[in-house]
Amino acid sequence: MTLLISLVKSRWLQLGIVLTMLFLGTCYDKITWLRLYSFQTMPWNLDIVLIAAFFIYIGYLFFHTNYHWIENPAAIAGLVTLAGTLIVLYLNHDFNFQFSMKSHEIQSSLPKVLVLATIPLIFSFGVMGLSYLTAHFEGSFILATIGQHTMIIMYLHNALLDIASMAGIDNIATKVIVALIVPMLITLVKRPVTKNRSLYLDS
């Protein structure tokens, strides 16, 4: 990415190059001779590199231009509305979209390059806008508490979501609550145990 920005001065050309990389990264499943363990994939995770380059460049572009537009309430409202609309459409099965860079999975009922170039950015910028707003709210201790436990949530949420599915819990809201609350409860239970153990060790 540094090489691209250094050699290509035109931002429109830079954007064209990363869009082309995104297009190539989403088309590897059409190349029949690239196969690895029955999955169609580019060698050395090249498909992931091509896709990640697009998002890295958008992040670079965001912070090197007038990024204060994300603080505009109208922009935030528009992003949240778009994100909410996408969630409703997805829950109503009006379109399908699954994306995992780790497992090379891209499934969509719409053109892949289109959804990858829009949906992740809409949600990312929407979260950034909401974060800006909530930072100015008093008493936002719930979000602050979640923010203090992001590490354990990151490690446990997949396992908890799988356990919830095996337990027959299909409601998405319930799954999200389980994935957030249980790790925080584990941390709260662990603190007194750790404190008591340190007292015994000191004595």
UniProtKB/TrEMBL annotation:
Keywords: Membrane, Transferase, Transmembrane, Transmembrane helix. GO terms for molecular function: transferase activity. The chain crosses the membrane at residues 12-31, 43-63, 75-92, 113-135, 172-189. The keyword Nucleotide-binding does not apply. The keyword Transferase applies. This is O-acetyl transferase. It comes from Lentilactobacillus farraginis DSM 18382 = JCM 14108.
